[in-house]
Write a structure and sequence with these properties.
By secondary structure, the chain is an all-beta fold. It is built from no helices and 16 strands. The strands form 3 sheets. Strands 6, 8, 9, 11, 14 and 16 form a 6-stranded antiparallel sheet that branches. The protein has a 5-stranded antiparallel sheet with strand order 1-4-3-2-5, with no helix packed on it. A 5-stranded antiparallel sheet has the order 7-10-15-12-13, with no helix packed on it. Strand 8 and strand 9 form a beta hairpin. The protein starts with a strand and ends in a 6-residue tail after the last strand. About 25% of the residues are buried. The mean pLDDT is about 95.
Length: about 240
């Protein structure tokens, strides 16, 4: 919940500080949140409120710093390849890699160099999720090849609410382009741009994600062998301190 108020000028408030606002007349009427804007010349302040207590309308707020919330904000969710399902139609191949000397074992989903292949996974989003866009980073590797190391990873998603059909269309795919180069090295792609989730997301929705290699992109995907997906890191934003 964003709010705007006017406080003293010339203070050292900065964007990102966690603050508590309590009514001087009744301190049990209080809010906590994060400063999103402050003008030291006018005293204008914007706060993204995460928790409230008490009731009523007040104009006597006392503002103080609080400990930074350890929950509200941007969070990462790691989804390994072992938690994904290759699609029945044009699905990636489940693979296993054992390194030569130290015998490190990795489970992968191997995506063809010429045919677009797909994997899916589902996350029941936390109640504290802000129901907005998300982003992703792809962890991957490749087997031996001599030239051309570019890979283009795509991801799209749809939200399914309680009582809705699973047969639903995914949102627009967003891509992350990366370049490998060395056999059996781990590569983390750049973070994608914002991924808009189709289906009018609501609190605690089941969100189904579809991941694929855009093998028909001759500019951004030139790797002539399988691209091995190890997993995806999702970045979500929460706007509450807990899921209560």
């Amino acid at each position: 919940l964003p709010i705007s108020l006017t406080t003293q000028t010339g203070k050292a408030w900065v964007v990102g500080q966690s603050v508590s606002l309590a009514s001087a007349a009744g301190p049990t009427n209080r809010m906590t949140g994060i400063i999103t804007a402050y003008n030291s010349g006018t005293g204008a302040m914007d706060v993204l409120v995460s928790t409230t207590s008490g009731s009523g309308t007040h104009a006597d707020w006392v503002i103080g710093l609080t400990a930074v919330s350890s929950i509200a904000g941007r969070h990462a969710i790691w989804v390994p390849a072992t938690a994904m399902i290759p699609r029945t139609t044009n699905g990636a191949t489940i693979g296993t890699v054992e390194t030569t000397t130290n015998k490190v074992m990795v489970k992968t989903l191997d995506h063809d160099a010429s045919t677009i292949e797909y994997d899916q996974f589902a996350v029941r989003m936390p109640k504290s999720w802000n129901e907005g866009t998300v982003s992703a980073v792809f962890e991957w590797s490749h087997p031996s090849t001599s030239v051309n190391y570019k890979v283009s990873w795509g991801i799209q998603a749809v939200a399914i609410s309680d009582g809705e059909a699973l047969e639903a269309a995914f949102g627009t795919a967003i891509y992350a382009n990366d370049t490998g180069g060395t056999t059996d090295y781990a590569y983390a792609s750049p973070e994608t741009a914002a991924i808009t989730i189709a289906g009018s997301p609501a609190a605690e929705d089941l969100v189904i994600f579809q991941v694929f290699r855009k093998a028909d992109d001759a500019t951004n995907d030139t790797l002539a062998v399988d691209a091995r997906l190890h997993g995806v890191t999702l970045y979500i934003t929460t706007d509450a301190e807990n899921d209560g």
